[in-house]
């Protein structure tokens, strides 16, 4: 059985985001005392710093693992260390009961634990395959394992499609000691575990995975619930979803490279502007946050949305097509002004 390195599931998405220096979270603008351990700690513990983590998210993970005594002390030390902004994502070996200052300093050394395999939220099966090849697993072994989804524990309700069922996490596995099939089995098992923990019945699991993969690709962090609601509203209205992420996945190229004829090809099952319903498969590995958004979408009548500012990720939602066109013009104006 492969041991999973503890991983913090973020409300994050795709993209190689840098860890941000967030020294003034929790309102810590005064030198009030915060609980803190002394010294450089004791027993080793591996902690995952995910993509996009800032001071507060790292602090929460370290408090949970009893590495530091309080989030406040860590956030303050994070803000005081100029090297903290360069902390890299990945599995870091720290120690229990460290002072916040020592924990930040050790993280800033960026001695990422070797041998861990990280599957990023939103990764496709092909991206996971390439990640495993890059980590040293034999390509032939990976392909042989992927060719037999049932042997990996893929449930019948997945229809033989692994896409979306290989859980995003960090796995404590090395190609020298763990087979490709064993790693992939663990990914499927973790997905099933999360679905069971969230009480998703078997007959809903595949649709939930597909919808969550769409949310993962489409939604800025704080808007997962709203995007999940748009998907539900459009399905209920028997409308095509019109999500370019679906077309990009199916065509294996960015949306700006997809032609009008390709977008409108009704014979292509991933042509989301003209083919109604969900795509035949998921389009990547959803995070738990996206699964939760699908299970409990925000309440609202929205059927369209536009991210009008790519820097701030501000996204506007509407049930009016005319207002949607206004939002699109707002984005186009922002894009022109900012060189997009």
Describe the structure.
InterPro entries: MLTG-like. Its EC number is 4.2.2.29. It holds the Pfam family YceG. One of its GO terms (biological process) is cell wall organization. Helix content is 39%, strand content 9%. It has 340 residues and is mostly helical. Among the domains are: 25-108, 2-Layer Sandwich (Dna Ligase, domain 1), CATH 3.30.1490; 121-197, no CATH class; 301-340. The strands form 3 sheets. The chain has a two-stranded antiparallel sheet. Strands 3-4 form a two-stranded antiparallel ribbon. It has a two-stranded antiparallel sheet with strand order 5-6. The longest helix is centred in the middle third of the chain and has 18 residues, at 180-197. The radius of gyration is 22 Å and the shape is globular. The termini are far apart.
């Amino acid at each position: 059985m492969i041991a999973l390195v503890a991983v913090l599931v973020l409300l994050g998405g795709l993209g190689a985001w840098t860890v941000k220096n967030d020294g003034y979270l929790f309102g810590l603008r005064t030198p009030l005392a915060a609980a803190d351990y002394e010294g450089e700690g004791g027993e080793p513990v591996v902690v995952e710093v995910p993509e996009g983590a800032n001071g507060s998210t790292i602090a929460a993970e370290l408090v949970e693992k009893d590495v530091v005594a309080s989030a406040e002390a860590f956030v303050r030390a994070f803000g005081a260390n100029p090297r903290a902004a360069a902390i890299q994502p990945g599995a870091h070996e720290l120690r229990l009961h460290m002072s916040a200052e020592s924990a930040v300093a050790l993280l800033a050394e960026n001695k990422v634990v070797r041998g861990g395999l990280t599957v990023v939220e939103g990764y496709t099966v092909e991206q996971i395959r390439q990640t495993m090849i890059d980590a040293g697993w034999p390509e032939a072994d990976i392909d042989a394992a992927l060719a037999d989804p049932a042997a990996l524990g893929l449930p019948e309700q997945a229809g033989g499609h692994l896409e979306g069922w290989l859980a995003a996490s960090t796995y404590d596995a090395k190609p020298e000691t763990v087979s490709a099939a064993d790693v992939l089995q663990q990914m499927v098992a973790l997905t099933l575990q999360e679905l069971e923990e969230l009480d998703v019945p078997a007959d809903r699991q595949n649709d939930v995975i597909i919808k969550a993969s769409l949310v993962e690709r489409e939604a800025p962090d704080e808007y997962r619930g709203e995007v999940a609601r748009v998907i539900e509203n459009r399905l209920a209205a028997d409308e095509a979803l019109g999500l370019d992420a679906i077309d990009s996945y199916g065509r294996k190229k960015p949306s700006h490279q997809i032609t009008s004829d390709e977008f409108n090809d009704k014979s292509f099952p991933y042509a989301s502007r003209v083919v109604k319903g969900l795509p035949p498969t998921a389009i990547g590995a959803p995070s738990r946050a996206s699964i939760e958004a699908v299970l409990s979408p925000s309440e609202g009548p929205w059927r369209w949305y536009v991210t009008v500012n790519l820097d701030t990720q501000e996204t506007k939602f509407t049930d009016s097509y005319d207002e949607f066109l206004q939002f699109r013009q707002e984005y186009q104006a922002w894009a022109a002004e900012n060189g997009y």
